[in-house]
């Protein structure tokens, strides 16, 4: 096993094999990813989708999304905006988050990228002016207790933004509290209620854009002009359990079995909670029970009397929550079967 990962195969290098990767390693099934991207593009084509890059933090994957026509992106951090712009993907970047010091964003605008920021208070819109950002969306609270102004304050904020010389492109409102409502009919009704708040605010604000939604409401949000879905490409376990969310879990964490306890019937792999986002629970391993994760280990056993793995075997855990999982890794390997076909740095991680 090489101690250093092979260089990116984008440049035409030796593709390599899955069993040669150092572990733990983030591995993406290219076929499943391609199917996810195509399914989403079929329903939310081109600029109707503004993919959220926080899900994968990988400009190589964002480039694939752009090649499908999704050339506007959603970002959560200044660093995501900076890396996307530097990667030549800065045609229309929305920072869907509040920032109080926008000087780094002003520099990105100065360098030629288009940057729009969410604002939910006078202080944030003044930060946009001071930092050299010229375009904003009024961020409206549609029921998730997080950022966003009260819907009835949106018109006043838009007036204040225009008076300060900013271009107001419209509104955004993220219905994150509804993504995992199990019944699609109930989810659709509740989404419509949340989006009625956004529409009401939009009537006071004006502009062309109503931005919002995510993977969980990709079929139930009929209001937004652009959907901010991100997880659909790699997919969480909770989303995969929803009947109307057809995307496949294309992301796994490759690990090596480093110890086997035959008398007690368990095996130990070399990927632990530092390799998985754990807030949605343990990773899963098809055909196995995952007992627990510690810092650098995951303990698991076969189900239904199947044999224990052997020392040195490779296993591919399915992380429950992809965003924090990706953020823990430096690179993402693309595989087709046992062939490694590409390697993308997770270049938007960090702040
Ligand atoms: N928009 C915003 C502002 C978000 O914070 C998120 C995720 O948390 C999303 C959109 C969509 O994400 P997902 O596709 O993972 O549901
Ligand atoms: Mn998430």
TrEMBL record:
Pfam families named among the record's database cross-references: Ala_racemase_N (PF01168), D-ser_dehydrat (PF14031)
Top-level division of the source organism's lineage: Bacteria
UniProt family annotation: Belongs to the DSD1 family.
Keywords: Lyase
Polar residues biased stretches: 1-12
GO biological process: D-serine catabolic process
Any one GO MF annotation of this record: D-serine ammonia-lyase activity
Domain D-serine dehydratase-like, residue spans: 250-336
Span list, region Disordered: 1-22
Name of the featured protein: D-serine deaminase, pyridoxal phosphate-dependent
